[in-house]
């Protein structure tokens, strides 16, 4: 929707009211003029703050009653005898400043002027990413706050804290694009972007990157190393990894089984040896291992 701010010189008596005060794109807005001076000859509306022929939208001459269209007339503006201006089917191109010049009888060039600025209410932005699944400390990620909206400023947040340029990230000139040169567990997000203009602000839904990392060096549990024949051997292996690691067990270099848990019932002295838990991350391509000596007596 649209919000309209009106600013007049402090000496002016004329006021402007927008009806409605908020109007969605594609709807109509009436710029209603109040407290008109007496003895008027007409009104001229301009697009922008420069009152020249190029920016001239339309004019109303009181006597004889005449409406004149200028080069900036789009076919959707209507000026009324009370100086108000109707803009139909409002578009993004209609945003910006407008000027009305109210000409009093006897004034050849001077007149009462007023300015207002028409802004689109900011839409709810969304975050798009060049890569939602980056590898830790390897891949660069580019986040953009969409849509690209004129006259809007952009702000970024991570974990509720505002972002600034640093060694590991860079913001574009208008802050709409965020470049993450290195992504770590501390910088996965959640990220939010906010769009602001003088009349409104809107924040995106949070986006968190799915960081591909690991595996870390695996740990084997329990720490017990000495067993007696006839006992059951139960070992588990864990390594932090995303996606979860693939686990493989060997004893003295010979493959035992896959999976994070190893169970061997009623072990004998033949089960003594060097146990190895190997973990591999298929996404990062990394592999790590931990060894544990088991003695069976």
TrEMBL record:
InterPro entries: CEA_cell_adhesion (IPR050831), Ig-like_dom (IPR007110), Ig-like_dom_sf (IPR036179), Ig-like_fold (IPR013783), Ig_sub (IPR003599), Ig_sub2 (IPR003598), Ig_V-set (IPR013106)
Location of the Ig-like domain: 125-210, 215-297
Protein origin, superkingdom: Eukaryota
SMART domains, per database record: IG (SM00409), IGc2 (SM00408)
UniProtKB keywords: Disulfide bond, Glycoprotein, Immunoglobulin domain, Repeat, Signal
Family the entry assigns: Belongs to the immunoglobulin superfamily. CEA family.
Protein's UniProt name: Ig-like domain-containing protein
Species of the source: Rhinopithecus bieti
């Amino acid at each position: 929707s649209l919000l309209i701010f009106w600013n007049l010189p402090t000496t002016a008596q004329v006021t402007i009211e927008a009806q409605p005060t908020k109007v969605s794109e594609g709807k109509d807005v009436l710029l209603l003029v109040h407290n008109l001076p007496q003895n008027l000859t007409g009104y001229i509306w301009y697009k922008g703050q420069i009152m020249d022929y190029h920016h001239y939208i339309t004019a109303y001459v009181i006597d004889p009653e005449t409406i004149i269209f200028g080069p900036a007339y789009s076919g959707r503006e209507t000026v009324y005898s009370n100086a108000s201006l109707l803009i139909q089917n409002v578009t993004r191109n209609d945003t910006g400043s407008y000027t009305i010049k109210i000409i009093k009888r006897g004034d050849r060039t001077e007149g009462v002027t007023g300015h207002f600025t028409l802004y689109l209410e900011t839409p709810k932005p969304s975050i798009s990413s060049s890569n939602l699944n980056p590898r830790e400390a390897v891949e660069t990620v580019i986040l953009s706050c969409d849509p690209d909206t004129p006259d809007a400023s952009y702000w970024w947040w991570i974990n509720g804290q505002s972002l600034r340029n640093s060694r590991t990230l860079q913001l574009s000139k208008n802050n709409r694009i965020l470049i993450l040169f290195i992504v770590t567990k501390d910088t996965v997000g959640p990220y939010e972007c906010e769009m602001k203009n003088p009349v409104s602000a809107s924040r995106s839904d949070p986006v968190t990157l799915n960081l591909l990392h690991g595996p870390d060096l695996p740990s084997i549990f329990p720490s017990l190393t000495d067993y007696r024949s006839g006992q059951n051997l139960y070992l588990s292996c864990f390594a932090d990894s995303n996606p979860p690691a693939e686990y493989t067990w060997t004893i003295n270099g010979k493959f035992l089984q896959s999976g994070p848990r190893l169970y061997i019932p009623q072990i004998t002295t033949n089960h003594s040896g060097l146990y190895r838990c190997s973990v591999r991350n298929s996404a990062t391509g990394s592999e790590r291992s931990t060894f544990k000596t088991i003695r069976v007596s």
